Amino acid sequence: MILYVARRLLGASGVLLAIAAVTFTIFYVMPADPAQAACGKVCSPEQLDAVRHYMGLDAPIAEQFRHFLTGIFTGRSLGTGQFAISCDFPCLGYSYAYSEPVRDMLVDRLPVSVSLAVGAAALWLLLGLGTGVTAALRKDTGTDRSLMIGAVAAASMPVYFTSGLLILLFIKTLGWLPYPAYEKLTDDPLGWASNLLLPWIALAFLYAAMYTRISRGSMIEAMAEPYIRTARAKGMPERTVIVKHGLRTGMTPLLTIFGMDLAGLLAGAIITEQIFGLQGVGQLFQKALVTQDQPIILGVTLLAASFIVIANLVVDLLYAVVDPRVRF
User: Fold this and answer.
1) Which of 9, 34, 54, 164 could lock 78 by a disulfide, CB 3.0 to 4.6 Å apart?
2) Residues 195, 180 contacting (CB under 8 angstroms)
3) Domain identity same for 286 and 218
4) Position 256 pLDDT exceeds 60
5) What's the average model confidence in pLDDT over 206-232?
6) How many Å apart are CA 305 and CA 94, to the nearest integer?
């Protein structure tokens, strides 16, 4: 098991290094003038020269990449002398439009995106797995057909339609919930949950439909295996057969897509955050795309890639826990 974990950690480190190299190439080598992209649309020649110096674009490419990696892992200083800007670990760049390090901007907004992603993920996993297993155990019955029809209908509705419908029903018409305004979990747990409930439902409604279909297919396949018949022949309770043998095997395909979906949302749910007015990473990324704020785009890209790599690593480790054969 230790060797398995070491191999996965080594592989993840290599992938992160490759992502950093590709990202550096896209943002620093390929553009005709990276300083112009970082400075934004409105930038005077004097500002452009200062940005070029701060970014170290007057140095050779190899040295620029070395500074780029050093900044990510240890932090760095942008510029020299009394006008130098300190960019702490992990240095993901400096937004000259906001006059603020990208790292600080992401740290301020990340709790919103994490709260949104984790809450929605728990909800859609509970709904999707529950309905999928129920449909699988009642295969070809009215319950199975009804649940599958509902899953197809839910998957057909885009998140902006579901979000608008929820706002109209629960906020405008019934007035049961406040319009979402993020509150810290430590300050007011009830307010935190009530403000994020509708965004959670909007995301969970879409993802749960896919998880229902996948968990149903995996569970049907698992329950048809010979070891299920053997467990029943030994006189094991049906609940033990379903949970310990069937569900454990049927969960394996869900781990992969769950890790990817959660990692993607941790870097920001752009549409959902925009509709509900949540000041998360996704909304910041959307604004950066409109204003062409290159440092923010670069920072969010690295953050999203890191989440996906880490999610892959965690999924690999969970595979080894669920199925010990994976370790070998």
Assistant:
1) 54
2) yes
3) yes
4) yes
5) 82
6) 19
The C-alpha atoms of residue 75 and residue 61 are separated, in whole angstroms, by 19
CATH number reported for the structural domain that contains residue 127 in this entry: 1.10.3720.10
On the question of pLDDT at 325 being above 70, the answer is: no
- For 13-35, what is each residue's pLDDT tens digit? 888 888 888 888 887 777 666 77
Query: Would you mind telling me the total number of residues written for the chain in this entry?
Result: 328
Nearest CA-CA partner of 152 in 212, 217, 203, 215: 212
pLDDT per residue as tens digits for the range 73-126: 887 777 666 667 777 778 887 787 787 888 888 888 888 888 888 888 888 888
Query: Which residues, 6 or more positions from 108, have their beta carbon under 8 angstroms from its beta carbon?
Result: none
Task: Yes or no: say if 267 and 257 are a contact pair by the CB < 8 Å rule.
Answer: no
Does 94 share its domain with 109?
no
Instruction: Looking at the structure, tell me whether residues 78 and 111 fall in a common domain.
Output: no
Domain boundary residue, one of 49, 70, 102: 102
∠ CA 197-201-204, nearest 5°, is 135
Residues 287, 149: Cα–Cα separation, whole Å: 38
Q: How confident is the model at residue 47 (pLDDT cuts 50, 70, 90)?
A: confident
> How many other C-beta atoms lie within 10 A of the C-beta of residue 176?
11
321 or 92, which is more confident? 92
Structural domain span for residue 95 = 2-102
| Bridge partners (DSSP) listed for residue 121 | none
